[in-house]
């Protein structure tokens, strides 16, 4: 009986760092998005809309870092509260939309002030103003300032200095 358990134990021991590394990457991507939101300026809130409204983050639960995004629920982002859109409820508006890869999204024509974040893919191939990139076992990000400006968003110069590429 011992010889059968030993290979299973060794396999579990070998896979544990990989699982732990994936959890760290997921938490890191969520933290990147949170911090990017901290250094983003959205268009002024229109009259009649509560200035203290939450910062609504829309993402699908199939994203590998969904759970890490959910753990940010209720945290403050420049005076607003991080609120992750739960599937099944209809949000009034998304402030941040997170999607995987180069999935083309409808581009708002009115400069709606929505920050699109792509996890993977190539910058400029979708509606993303920010693209998260896995590079050499690190998470990096690219920023498309033209897309951000088209949507009425501005990024802090401190954030732009940290980006891998800025267009």
Total of DSSP H or I helical runs spanning 4+ residues? 4
Terminus-to-terminus distance: 60 Å
Share of residues in helices: 25-40%
Instruction: Please mark out the parts with pLDDT under 50 across 5 or more consecutive residues, or reply none.
Output: 1-21
Tell me, rounded to a whole number, the average pLDDT.
77
Count of domains: 1
Lateral arrangement of strands in the main beta sheet? 3-4-2-5-6-7-8-10
Radius of gyration: 18 Å
Give me the strand/helix succession: HEEHEEEEEEHEHE
The fraction of residues assigned to DSSP E strands is: 15-25%
Largest sheet, strands/sense/barrel = 8 strands, mixed
What gross morphology would you assign? globular
Total beta strands: 10
Class by alpha and beta content = alpha/beta
Structural overview:
The chain has 167 residues and is α/β, with parallel strands linked by helices. The chain has one domain. The protein is built from four helices and ten strands. Strand 3 and strand 4 form a beta hairpin.
Topology (SSEs and partners):
Layout: H1 2-38, E1 40-41, E2 55-58, H2 66-70, E3 76-77, E4 80-84, E5 96-100, E6 115-119, E7 130-135, E8 138-143, H3 145-150, E9 154-155, H4 157-162, E10 165-166
Parallel strand pairs: 2-4, 2-5, 5-6, 6-7, 8-10
Antiparallel strand pairs: 1-9, 3-4, 7-8
């Amino acid at each position: 009986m011992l010889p059968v358990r030993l290979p299973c134990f060794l396999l579990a021991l070998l896979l544990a760092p990989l699982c732990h590394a994936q959890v760290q990457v997921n938490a890191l991507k969520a933290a990147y998005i949170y911090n990017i939101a901290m250094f983003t300026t959205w268009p002024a809130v229109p009259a009649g809309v509560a200035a203290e409204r939450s910062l609504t983050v829309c993402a699908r639960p199939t994203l590998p870092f969904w759970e890490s995004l959910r753990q940010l629920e209720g945290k403050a982002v420049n005076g607003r509260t991080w609120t992750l859109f739960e599937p099944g409820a209809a949000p009034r508006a998304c402030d941040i939309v997170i999607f995987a890869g180069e999935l083309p999204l409808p581009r708002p024509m009115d400069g709606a002030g929505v920050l699109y974040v792509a996890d993977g893919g190539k910058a400029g191939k979708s509606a993303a103003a920010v693209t998260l990139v896995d590079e050499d076992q690190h998470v990096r990000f690219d920023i498309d300032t033209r897309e951000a400006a088209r949507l009425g968003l501005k990024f802090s110069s401190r954030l732009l200095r940290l980006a891998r590429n800025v267009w």
